[in-house]
Amino acid sequence: MQSGLELAHRTEVDGQHVARCLRLIWQDEDTRKFIQVGVLWELATPAYAFEYTDGAQHERFVPLPEFPDRQKLYVTPQLPAFFANRVMSSRRESYGDYVGWLGIADVPTPVEILARRGGGRSTATFPVVAGFAPVNGQVSGRFFASGIRHLPGAQDRLEQLMPGDFLRLRQEPGNSVNSKAVLLDKDPGQPVGYVPDWLLADLYHLGLDHVGVRVERVNRDAPAHLRLLCDLSGEVPADQ
C-alpha cells in the first residue's frame, strides 16, 4: 500500500493512461483530522480505478462497503456508486446554478464536478477533492474557501473581490479548533475565509512561501461553502 502522494503522481493505472485523479479524504470523528484514505483515477478508455492509500490503515477507519479490501485495485467501466451518488443530478432545478458556481462553462462530466466542488461542505465525513498532483514541478488546482460565516466582516469584504485578485495566506496558530489553520486575507489582517482543512497538509508540504492563491469566482448568491472559488498554484520545492 502506497502513500497518497505516490498514488496521485501515477500517470498509468492498470496499463491505462490516467486522465484525472481525485483523492478520497476521511475525517476522523474523534480527532477531527482529515486523512487521505484513497485515490480515484479516471482512465482514458473510459474506465475508473480506485485504490486505498496507507491512510486507510488507520485503526478507526472502516473500509467502504463498495471497496471492502484495503489491498485491492478496483477497476470498473462506470463511476463507482460511492462517488456517483455525490454528484448532483442534472434533473435538479438548481443544477444550472450549481454548475455555474463551480465555474464550469461546458457540459461537465461527473468527475469534473467532483474535482471542482473541492470537498463540498466542511461537515462532510468523506470529502472528494482534486489530486493536486505536480506536473513538471508545478501544482495547480481549485478549492472553495471555508469558514466564511465565522469571520466577522468577511461577507462585506467578499463583495469587493474581483476575479484575479491575489489572496494572502496567513497562519492562525491561536485558532482553538485547528492550530494549523490558514486564513485567506484580502488585505493584511482582512480575512475573507480559510483554506479548507483537507488542503492544509498539501499546503504545508509545499510550503506557504511556494504557493499563490487568487480569486477565480465570487458566487454572491451561493451557499456559504460555495461562495468563494479560489485558484491555487505553486512550485514544488527542489528538495522534494
Short key terms for the protein model shown above:
240 residues; alpha+beta; 6-stranded antiparallel beta sheet; 6 helices
What do these coordinates show?
The chain is an alpha+beta fold. The protein has helices at 4-8, 81-84, 95-101, 110-117, 154-158, 197-206, and strands spanning 12-13, 16-27, 34-43, 47-52, 74-76, 128-130, 138-144, 166-171, 182-187, 190-194, 211-218, 228-235. The strands form two sheets. Strands 1, 2, 3, 4, 5 and 6 form a six-stranded antiparallel sheet that branches. A six-stranded antiparallel sheet has the order 7-12-11-8-9-10.
What is the percent of helical residues? 10-25%
* Overall form: globular
Unreliable stretches covering 5 or more consecutive residues: none
Biggest sheet architecture: 6 strands, antiparallel
Give the rounded overall mean pLDDT.
85
Rg, Å, rounded:
18 Å
Q: What is the first-to-last residue Cα distance?
A: 21 Å
How much strand content do the residues show? 25-35%
Structural class: alpha+beta
Total helices: the number is 6
Task: Tell me the number of strands.
Answer: 12
Order of helices and strands: HEEEEEHHHEEHEEEHEE
SSE layout and pairings?
Blueprint: H1 4-8, E1 12-13, E2 16-27, E3 34-43, E4 47-52, E5 74-76, H2 81-84, H3 95-101, H4 110-117, E6 128-130, E7 138-144, H5 154-158, E8 166-171, E9 182-187, E10 190-194, H6 197-206, E11 211-218, E12 228-235
Antiparallel strand pairs: 1-2, 2-3, 2-6, 3-4, 4-5, 7-12, 8-9, 8-11, 9-10, 11-12
